[in-house]
Amino acid sequence: xxxxxxxxxxxxxxxxxxxxxxxxxxxxxxxxxxxxxxxxxxxxxxxxxxxxxxxxxxxxxxxxxxxxxxxxxxxxxxxxxxxxxxxxxxxxxxxxxxxxxxxxxxxxxxxxxxxxxxxxxxxxxxxxxxxxxxxxxxxxxxxxxxxxxxxxxxxxxxxxxxxxxxxxxxxxxxxxxxxxxxxxxxxxxxxxxxxxxxxxxxxxxxxxxxxxxxxxxxxxxxxxxxxxxxxxxxxxxxxxxxxxxxxxxxxxxxxxxxxxxxxxxxxxxxxxxxxxxxxxxxxxxxxxxxxxxxxxxxxxxxxxxxxxxxxxxxxxxxxxxxxxxxxxxxxxxxxxxxxxxxxxxxxxxxxxxxxxxxxxxxxxxxxxxxxxxxxxxxxxxxxxxxxxxxxxxxxxxxxxxxxxx
Length: 405
Ligand SMILES: *Cc1c(COP(=O)(O)O)cnc(C)c1O
Prior knowledge:
Aspartate Aminotransferase, domain 2; binds pyridoxal-5'-phosphate
């Protein structure tokens, strides 16, 4: 279901020069490749050779651009980065070995002791943990404010604030953040902005078009799309990413050429997969909302979601991730529904071709206190469902039997 395909486009979203599939199939690749191969060969090389010292001098003195050592780059990485930048409408992209390596890589490059960041509190629990527990060890202050509360965000900004951070939509409550307001606050206070757009993907929203400085993806999810790899990316301007790229070469969170090839292969069908994820997400969310055993559904494409209007104005579709709560169920009864579903597999992660189901209270928050779980809005009766690309009729029939078992 394409939310705003019929409405006049009043957003600042610029159409990409070419369609997303044209970009994801061709961007970043050499037209004529080694061995005349149509696909990118996998360059299994930890290092790259120089024909002579003169050849090396050309490289050292900047007269030639080429690979040097695997931690600083390889040809498979160039192809993938070209595709990711094109999809997001960004000048540049840096690919990492995981989404977390990307977040850590960006924040370590940009923050110094004494700096502060302000972030919306609904977020991937490891991102929160890195900021609150580990950046703190290096003297960086993190301030969490309630998601979507722009007045609180603005009030938390001090002269030391260097970055505003949010996901959109958020995990697992699927709250959409108004990017126009988010960017306006950043610009007014001369603070850079970072959006984790893992759940949205550039098919549904391109934060760079809205003026966001850095876009983060866990490419493990929709970008790779096949539940077979881990990767992450930061997109932004060439200039802003220069120091981030330099630091990646030191931190070393890079991908193997094999992993990059898998990511490149996954990206070729990105747009087709997203169309199906969006369609399945909308249909399954509507089914869940209509079921008597479901008390609450969090999905940006439902008018009942508190941030539906923002999502409808800002996003092309709403993705495959749905969070819902089972009426009058404790955690054990909720677990019985998870166990009764036959198509989705029980696992963390999202955005792959296989549907996945999990109970956040058990999967990610079991070792948190009930008070902490309440603070983060993780209810015992909550289920997170990542729609894959299976047929929606089958996903719905399976969920129906699980809820009624
Ligand atoms: C999975 C995820 C991450 C972390 O990515 P990894 O590839 O698992 O390291 C960060 N943000 C969001 C929103 C995620 O879903």
